[in-house]
């Protein structure tokens, strides 16, 4: 069955700080949004899969990875995968920039 998606406005592009995360709550989802130095905007689930469930929007960004503020797990913001030697993943969300507006795609 095809999954329907919808787009939700999350922020103006120029209000997203470069290399810092921003937490956005949409209904029951908490999403960490990152504006990378290459200009791309990435959105991932705002909860580390490790036991403490660190808030990823408060983590340090380096290139295309975010470091969890609690125990420093390194998570790729493109595919949500935790980098070795640790294991796990977080949900990722597609983003779209239109003019100065940033949207995220959510499952229906
Ligand atoms: S809670 Fe994120 S590394 Fe432990």
Supply database-style keywords.
108 residues; mainly beta; Rieske Iron-sulfur Protein; 4-stranded antiparallel beta sheet; 3-stranded antiparallel beta sheet; 10 strands; binds FE2/S2 (inorganic) cluster; iron; nitrate assimilation
Task: Outline the structure in words.
By secondary structure, the chain is mostly beta strands. The mean pLDDT is 95. The protein starts with a strand and ends with a strand. The protein is globular and about 35 Å long. The relative contact order is 0.25. The strands form three sheets. A four-stranded antiparallel beta sheet has the order 2-3-4-8, with no helix packed on it. A three-stranded antiparallel beta sheet has the order 1-10-9, with no helix packed on it. Strands 5-6-7 form a three-stranded antiparallel beta sheet, with no helix packed on it. The protein has one domain: Rieske [2Fe-2S] iron-sulphur domain (Rieske Iron-sulfur Protein, 3-layer Sandwich). A hairpin with a 2-residue loop joins strand 9 and strand 10. Bound molecules: FE2/S2 (inorganic) cluster (FES). The site of FE2/S2 (inorganic) cluster (FES) has 9 residues, from loops. The site of FE2/S2 (inorganic) cluster has 9 residues, from loops. Pfam families: Rieske_2.
